[in-house]
């Protein structure tokens, strides 16, 4: 049974996935104990000077699961999880799986706008924060949101300096709980239903507000197992989590879960900067890691200056945004490892090049779907499949692709076909050998250095700034970030400059990575014959700021 307000797979499809051994009835929360039995004192996690064995990890997870129950968290409760790449992220995510609560994976860069929305939409009972992180006080934000949302009754804090301890010592309302106290003698827990939601990922979003993607135990266990197998992971695998762990790419493609499942070691990097990651690759003899193209470019630049020993690195996975073939071609000669292109989405479908693919396919395609049960269609604007080799929108369904966003019936009616295919909003073609070539998008988002920004979300915020009467946001190509955020604005009176606009959006609590990189005032926005803002015209104009604005009154 799936949590309410989710869309389950049709019963016959689910039965087939079980019969065919795709869904094995695995409860993610039970994995760490099984790993501890198989891999015992081998190293599971490395973070800074800290090293944790599989047994230690499983013990900590059991204690934290019991601790959450003691703190009043119940099976089915949603808990927004916002932690950086620290061992506690892994402990807490698995402790929540173990006791049946459902973490909602948030980015550490999320601020008031995003967190309030996530807490409200998910009806979260708890919010797990790092305390003060990179100068931002997440605990204070938690207090503010709890004051607005009665459903939020616990803010769990990693860094217990000050605030949390004070309150735990007596005078508070029990809202703020140090994570150090989420620790109790383990007791038997029933375990979760494998067909139920294990956690929520965030969608890259095409709508003004981010959507929640329910991922079930069965579907995610299948995804991680399949990708780990495809890459031939084993006990000698050392995976570097360079990107944030809450990113689906890092968490399970094969990432953290795939590596641990095969008895490998996960090294948590605090951030993806080249210098730090190169030192970790050398020190820990890292064999596999995954980055977005912008990070890959930084690493190549740093490589020219660095004498770090990267010889242990066998495969660099690159995905999350379009990888320029020129950049792809530099990976093996300059970093000395194989390149694996990954096209993926939090919603499910993953395509990857295979270890034995020829060089040309590795450089120029995004590979094949990871599962034989992935169904992929390329359709024209009427929804009809195009002939092989033709370009169109990519549609997909399969054993680890969602059937509906959480609590979003209206959006779901548009985002899925009647027979359950998810409309990815990506434009792609299929080679005769069945490899995907991603060519563009029809969805209204900007992909800035791998971060996904829904144009509608930024537009809605800009429209609330005094002086602004209309706003349209489009991507503009950028050599370094892939794309940047370009805002066209209409103003009746004053025209606040970019710095003022950015400050206003920050003040409203929008995450920094969504702030426009450039703003241009125009007399009006161009419209399509149907009266919608013509984003094609705007994107072309953004790419060439000196070209005449043809739609403008002369
Ligand atoms: C990954 O997941 P999301 O959910 O942050 O973003 C998904 C979207 C895709 O629909 C596509 O528009 C874009 O990101 N994308 C790519 C790409 N990989 C993702 N566009 C062009 N080339 C690629 N290789 O980004 C994600 C999830 C799991 C693994 C890897 C990436």
UniProtKB/TrEMBL annotation:
<dbReference type="InterPro" id="IPR045851">
    <property type="entry name" value="AMP-bd_C_sf"/>
</dbReference>
<dbReference type="Pfam" id="PF13193">
    <property type="entry name" value="AMP-binding_C"/>
</dbReference>
<dbReference type="GO" id="GO:0016878">
    <property type="term" value="F:acid-thiol ligase activity"/>
</dbReference>
<protein>
    <submittedName>
        <fullName>AMP-binding protein</fullName>
    </submittedName>
</protein>
<dbReference type="GO" id="GO:0005524">
    <property type="term" value="F:ATP binding"/>
</dbReference>
<keyword id="KW-0067">ATP-binding</keyword>
<dbReference type="InterPro" id="IPR000873">
    <property type="entry name" value="AMP-dep_synth/lig_dom"/>
</dbReference>
<dbReference type="InterPro" id="IPR050237">
    <property type="entry name" value="ATP-dep_AMP-bd_enzyme"/>
</dbReference>
<feature type="domain" description="AMP-binding enzyme C-terminal">
    <location>
        <begin position="457"/>
        <end position="532"/>
    </location>
</feature>
<dbReference type="Pfam" id="PF00501">
    <property type="entry name" value="AMP-binding"/>
</dbReference>
<feature type="domain" description="AMP-dependent synthetase/ligase">
    <location>
        <begin position="34"/>
        <end position="406"/>
    </location>
</feature>
<keyword id="KW-0436">Ligase</keyword>
<keyword id="KW-0547">Nucleotide-binding</keyword>
<dbReference type="InterPro" id="IPR025110">
    <property type="entry name" value="AMP-bd_C"/>
</dbReference>
């Amino acid at each position: 049974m799936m949590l309410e307000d989710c869309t389950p797979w049709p019963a016959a499809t689910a039965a087939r996935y079980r019969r065919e051994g795709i869904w094995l009835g695995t409860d993610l929360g039970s994995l760490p104990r099984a790993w501890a039995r198989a891999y015992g004192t081998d190293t599971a996690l490395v973070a800074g000077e800290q090293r944790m064995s599989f047994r230690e990890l499983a013990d900590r997870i059991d204690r934290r699961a019991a601790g959450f129950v003691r703190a009043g968290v119940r099976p089915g409760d949603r808990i927004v999880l916002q932690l950086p790449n620290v061992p506690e992220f892994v402990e807490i995510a698995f402790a929540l799986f173990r006791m049946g609560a459902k973490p909602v994976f948030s980015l550490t860069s999320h601020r008031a706008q995003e967190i309030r929305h996530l807490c409200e939409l998910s009806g979260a009972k708890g919010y797990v924060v790092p305390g003060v992180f990179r100068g931002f006080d997440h605990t204070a934000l938690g207090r503010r949101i709890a004051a607005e949302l009665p459903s939020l009754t616990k803010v769990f804090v990693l860094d217990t300096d000050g605030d949390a301890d004070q309150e735990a010592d007596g005078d508070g309302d029990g809202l703020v709980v140090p994570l150090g106290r989420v620790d109790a003698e383990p007791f038997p827990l029933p375990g979760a239903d494998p067909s139920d939601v294990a956690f929520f990922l965030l969608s890259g979003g095409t709508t003004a507000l981010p959507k929640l993607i329910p991922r079930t135990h069965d579907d995610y266990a299948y995804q991680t197992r399949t990708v780990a197998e495809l890459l031939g992971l084993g006990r000698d695998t050392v995976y570097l989590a360079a990107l944030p762990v809450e990113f689906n790419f890092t968490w399970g493609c094969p990432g953290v879960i795939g590596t641990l499942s095969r008895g490998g070691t996960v090294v948590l990097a605090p951030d993806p900067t080249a210098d730090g990651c190169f030192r970790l690759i050398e020190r820990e003899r890292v064999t596999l890691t995954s980055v977005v193209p912008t990070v890959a470019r930084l690493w190549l630049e740093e490589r020219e200056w660095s004498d770090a020993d990267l010889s242990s690195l066998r495969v660099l996975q690159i995905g999350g945004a379009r990888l320029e073939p020129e950049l792809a071609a530099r990976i093996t000669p300059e970093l000395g490892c194989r390149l694996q292109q990954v096209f993926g989405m939090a919603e499910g479908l993953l395509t990857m090049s295979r270890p034995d693919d020829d060089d040309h396919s590795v450089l120029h395609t995004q590979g094949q779907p990871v599962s034989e049960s992935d169904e992929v269609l390329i359709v024209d604007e009427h929804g009809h499949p195009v002939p092989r080799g033709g370009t169109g929108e990519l549609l997909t369904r399969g054993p680890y692709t969602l059937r509906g966003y959480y609590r979003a019936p209206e959006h779901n009616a548009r985002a899925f076909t009647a027979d359950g295919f998810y409309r990815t909003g990506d434009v792609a073609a299929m080679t005769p050998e069945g490899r995907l070539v991603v060519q563009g998008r029809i969805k209204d988002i900007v992909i800035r250095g791998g971060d996904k920004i829904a144009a509608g979300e930024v537009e809605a915020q800009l429209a609330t700034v005094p002086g602004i009467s209309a706003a349209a946001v489009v991507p503009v190509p950028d050599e370094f970030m892939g794309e940047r955020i370009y805002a066209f604005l209409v103003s009746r009176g004053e025209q606040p400059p970019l710095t003022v606009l950015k400050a206003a959006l920050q003040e409203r609590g929008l995450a920094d990575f969504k702030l426009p990189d450039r703003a241009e005032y125009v007399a009006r926005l161009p419209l399509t014959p149907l009266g919608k803002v013509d984003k094609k015209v705007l994107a072309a104009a953004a790419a060439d700021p000196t070209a005449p604005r043809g739609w403008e009154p002369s």
